[in-house]
Each structure stands twice: as structure tokens, then as C-alpha cells.
Amino acid sequence: MPRAKTAPFIVTETVVASGTTAVQSGILDLSAYVDPGDSQGVEIMAVDYVWYDQSNNMPIQNATTAFQAVAQLKDNTNQDLIAYDNIHLVSSGSLYYDTDKGVSNASDVYPDILYISKDGGRVTVNDSMEICLKSSVSVSNLACAVRIQMRVVSLNKRDYMTLALQTVSDN
Q1: Is 25 exposed, middle or buried (0-12, 13-18, 19+ CB in 10 A)?
Q2: Among residues 130, 129, 127, which one has the least CA distance to residue 164?
Q3: pLDDT tens digits, 21-50
Q4: How many H helices and E strands in the chain?
Q5: In this structure, what is the dihedral angle of CA atoms 150, 155, 157, 159, given to the nearest 10 degrees?
Q6: Whole-angstrom Cα distance, residue 86 to residue 111?
Q7: 22: number of Cβ within 10 Å
Q8: Considering only CA atoms, which of 107, 85, 80 is closest in space to residue 95?
Q9: What is the pLDDT of residues 132-170, one digit of tens each?
Q10: CA 164 from chain center: how many Å?
């Protein structure tokens, strides 16, 4: 069972997918928080996705062209989207913009709150995480800021090794 070493804090990363349909990614460096020698990792408690127009910080829209966009937070770094049943997927957020200028989050519910009780988040021992973003059509100034609430936790050696082996075996 992980034991909290810090109070929850917020880490943010913005990924820009302006004018492209290719997957864009950003890396979160967690090496300051993860320490194999002390069996220390991070517990992700909640993730929030903020979709916006990076030129003016207003809500994103695309005139009369519909589009879909998706962002994924993963505990591996392959610079691509992964299947939703993949063990490396920590959280995801999506946006759907229809031709009538209606906006929804399609079938994905965000923000993702990964704990029900005070001790139930997603623990990772990787020293980096990746956020991938993709849009179905080229959208000017599309960006997504991902806000991750986490805390540093201490694990026993057995739990730390189990998480480390699980991560390596599935990469």
C-alpha cells in the first residue's frame, strides 16, 4: 500500500496540435519525484483536460467544420495514441465539435478522478509520462493543457518492483 510522502500538488503540460492531424506529444519529467533507491513513485489522483485556442486563450472552435480531438496521459513514451484497454493508459479526454457549433466530450468523461477514497489513485514508478494529442481535422491554434493532481508516495520494495516489472514487460 503506498504511503503519501507529500501533499497533493499540480503538474501541468500543454500540447499543441495546431494545423495538423498528426499525433503530437509532450513529455512530463517525473525524475525529481520517482526514486528507485527509496521505492518512491507518484500517485496520480485527478487529471483535467482544458481545450483552448492558443492564440487568445478562448474556447476552441473550427468555424463550420466538425472535428474530434483526443488526449491521452500514459505512463510510457511511444509518441502515439494507444488502445483504451492498454495498461499504460492513465487517463484520457476527448472533445467533439459539431457543425452546429455544439461542443461535447463525446463518450469520454473528464476530468478523470482516479481515486474514490482518500488513498485510491493510480501509482506509477516511471520517471516520465507522455501526453499525446490528435485531431481528426486540421484546426488552427488547437491546444490542450493537461493538469495532473499527484503526490509523491513511498512503496514497499515488493510493490515497487511489481510496478516496475509490469511497466517494462508491456513496453
Answers
A1: buried
A2: 127
A3: 999 999 999 999 999 989 999 999 989 999
A4: 1, 11
A5: -80
A6: 19
A7: 10
A8: 107
A9: 999 999 999 999 999 999 999 998 898 888 888 877 765
A10: 19
